[in-house]
């Protein structure tokens, strides 16, 4: 008897239900080698894995990732290997050194959808060569709230139509290399001032507002054939109670019914506090499946086999109790299986140029006199890392020191941001202040004001979205990206090695 017949007759065995439940799960793990428990679960039917920087050897990320993917594929030929590689600030392959492609904000500023398509194809080519078949990108959120702590620079911009064009181009470019795209975070995380890694943000926009703004890029992504849509752990009270990840009205009625999406609906990480610290992992998994999700992402934190087994037991129990229909579970597993088949099919991808340097150069905007005549004092302002991006230790300092020997680089943080000692020690040097997130971080504004009061010719290099133009001052560089390539392009400008 087939599983389809079993589902119709409600006579699935525990073993069949276990395999179906595993077919919805995407855990993470520690280290650059696959642990035994993970390989065993792949043999049992685990759908795939989500890889992070902890799984990549920073000395040779591409080779180490290819070796790891090959080992996973030896355990299950159709395993879906996923990674969260947006470029710019959010990079897993280049977490140790910085990405060689700028992120979405820079591409949106350039506003050349053909360039975005080429950058995405180059990224897809690299990922596919390393054995990755699913990338958790691009971000389709519209940057609607300037105080948003987690989207911001990861978005293509604040204009919904512009975002839509670049999202569609990114999907098309990446999927041309048979790496499935994941547009996120449905139905939109851009109009919040909170981070769903820590709480349940709320978007109060009306349905009509959402159709004019939040949903525009998702419609474009679906039309472009995006294989996956990722849910947001965000509440939309004008649509439903609770977060979208657990809402049937949002995932089934809106995304499936109204927008016509037929691919895989994947949750954002169930380990995020918006789920794990509210309803909990098990209820989050079951609730998401009931709502219409197909793939359950649990890889953000290092996942242990006990967590996977707890989720499997919860899903099986939900079927036995009648809360989750066997047909819904089978549908979810089937959609994930179709994604795996799509990734394995089609023509073999070919190498594609990255396009990162061109994008970084074209995104740079310069105001005033930023040319340095001698080695400067660089003050780099660094905040605590976000969970999405992790540590971002690179900025303009190191690239500028390579180009102008004798450059002094001083790192400042919210807990250690007294500029006086550095200014006193280097009275004759022109000062470069590298900021990141100036528009929402008051301590950085205070530091910049203090420096400008003593050194009016200070050069400001903004590695994120622009802050107050008056605060940036007459001499500044806007990179619109936290990528290494953008820092290098900015260093070329300041050192006089390139003109804009």
CATH top level of the largest domain is Alpha Beta
- How is the biggest beta sheet arranged? 6 strands, parallel
**Which strand order does the major sheet show?**
2-3-4-5-6-7
Helix content: 40-55%
What is the radius of gyration?
23 Å
**Quaternary form:** single chain
- What sort of overall outline do the alpha carbons produce when their principal axes are compared? globular
On the 0-100 scale, what is the average pLDDT? Answer: 92
- Helix-strand category: alpha/beta
Summed up, the helix count is: 20
What is the fold named in CATH at topology level of the largest domain?
TIM Barrel
Task: Set down the secondary structure blueprint.
Layout (H helix, E strand, L loop, with lengths): L2 H7 L4 H9 L2 E3 L8 H9 L3 E4 L9 H15 L4 E4 L20 H7 L2 H17 L4 E2 L24 H16 L4 E7 L20 H6 L2 H9 L4 E4 L16 H11 L5 E3 L6 H4 L4 H11 L4 E3 L6 H17 L4 H19 L11 H8 L1 E3 L9 E5 L15 H7 L4 E5 L7 H6 L5 E5 L6 H13 L4 E4 L6 H4 L3 E3 L5 H11 L6
Parallel strand pairs: 1-8, 2-3, 3-4, 4-5, 5-6, 6-7, 10-11, 10-12, 12-13, 13-14
Antiparallel strand pairs: 9-14
Helix pairs in contact: 2-13, 5-15, 6-7, 7-9, 12-13, 15-20, 16-20
């Amino acid at each position: 008897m087939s599983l389809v017949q079993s589902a119709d007759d409600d006579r699935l065995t525990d073993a069949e239900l276990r395999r179906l439940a595993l077919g919805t799960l995407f855990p993470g793990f520690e280290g650059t080698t696959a642990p035994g428990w993970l390989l065993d679960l792949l043999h049992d039917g685990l759908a795939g894995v989500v890889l992070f920087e902890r799984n990549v050897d920073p000395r040779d990320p591409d080779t180490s990732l290819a070796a790891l993917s090959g080992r996973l594929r030896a355990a299950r030929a159709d395993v879906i290997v996923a990674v969260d590689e947006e470029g710019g600030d959010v990079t897993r392959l280049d977490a140790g050194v910085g990405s060689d492609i700028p992120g979405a904000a820079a591409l949106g500023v350039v506003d050349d959808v053909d360039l975005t398509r080429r950058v995405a194809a180059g990224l897809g080519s690299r990922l596919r060569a390393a054995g990755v078949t699913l990338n958790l990108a691009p971000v389709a959120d519209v940057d609607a709230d300037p105080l948003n702590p987690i989207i911001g620079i990861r978005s293509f911009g604040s204009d919904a139509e512009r975002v839509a064009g670049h999202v569609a181009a990114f999907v098309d470019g990446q999927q041309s290399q048979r790496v499935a795209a994941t547009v996120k975070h449905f139905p939109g995380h851009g109009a919040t001032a909170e981070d769903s890694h820590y709480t349940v943000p709320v978007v109060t926009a009306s349905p009509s507002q959402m159709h004019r703004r939040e949903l525009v890029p998702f419609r474009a992504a679906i039309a472009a054939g995006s294989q996956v849509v990722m849910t947001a752990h965000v509440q939309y009270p004008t649509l439903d109670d609770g977060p979208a990840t657990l809402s049937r009205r949002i995932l089934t009625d809106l995304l499936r019914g109204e927008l016509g999406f037929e691919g895989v609906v994947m949750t954002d990480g169930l380990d995020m506090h918006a789920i794990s610290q509210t309803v909990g992992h098990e209820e989050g998994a079951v609730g998401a499946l009931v709502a219409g999700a197909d793939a359950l992402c649990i890889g953000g934190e290092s996942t242990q086999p006990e967590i996977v087994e707890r989720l499997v037991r919860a899903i099986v129990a939900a079927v036995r109790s009648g809360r989750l229909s066997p047909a819904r579970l089978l549908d979810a597993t089937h959609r994930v299986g179709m994604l795996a088949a799509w990734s394995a099919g089609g023509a073999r991808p070919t190498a594609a140029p990255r396009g990162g340097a061109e994008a970084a150069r074209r995104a740079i905007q310069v105001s005033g006199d930023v040319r340095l005549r001698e080695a400067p004092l660089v003050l780099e302002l660094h905040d605590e890392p976000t969970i999405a991006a992790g540590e971002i230790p690179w900025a303009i300092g190191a690239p500028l020191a390579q180009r102008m020997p004798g450059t002094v680089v001083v790192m400042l943080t919210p807990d250690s941001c007294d500029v006086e000692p550095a200014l006193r020690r280097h009275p004759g040097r022109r000062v470069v202040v590298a900021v990141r997130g100036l528009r929402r971080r008051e301590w950085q504004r205070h530091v910049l004001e203090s420096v400008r009061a003593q050194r009016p010719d200070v050069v400001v290099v903004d590695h994120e979205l622009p802050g107050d133009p008056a605060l940036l001052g007459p001499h500044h560089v806007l990179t619109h990206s936290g990528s290494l390539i953008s820092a290098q392009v900015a260093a070329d400008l300041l050192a006089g090695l390139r003109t804009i």
